[in-house]
Design a protein that fits this description.
The chain is of the alpha+beta class. It has 2 domains: 1-80, Arc Repressor Mutant, subunit A (Orthogonal Bundle), CATH 1.10.10.10; 83-143, Dna Ligase, domain 1, CATH 3.30.1490. The chain is built from 5 helices and 6 strands, in the order αβααββββαβα. β4 and β5 form a beta hairpin. The N and C termini lie far apart (50 Å). The relative contact order is 0.12.
Length: 143
Amino acid sequence: MEIKGRYKTKQLNELQEFLRGTGGAHFTAQDVLKYFQDKDLSIGKTTVYRRLEELVAEGSIKKYFIEEGSGACFEYIGGETHPMHYHLKCERCGKLFHLDCDEITCFEQHISEHHKFRIDPVRTVFYGICEACGKAEDGRDQQ
């Protein structure tokens, strides 16, 4: 990944390393700041936000607002086009999952054709309990 029109700096190299290491998982600006802090590297909060916005503008990362009033989260896509997808959010642990499912595509088409309404996948999140939290919850019920 090359951030266009930027000087090569240690910070930029580290940011690129962080993005490659996300493996498509969602992250926040705070995650980036923590990554730099854990590596004992200095970077300003403003610099992180500016770089993330530049990467959104050039198409290397996607930006999502999952909940009203919460900060943005990002997904590294490396400039490749990825199909739009919905998200699942666990109400217990807060983990966010991608939902790529043909059934949801059928539902989306049904809503469009029969109700004349287009759903925005970037802003649509389904809430519930993830498998791990569900198992932990089930284990407590059996005790």
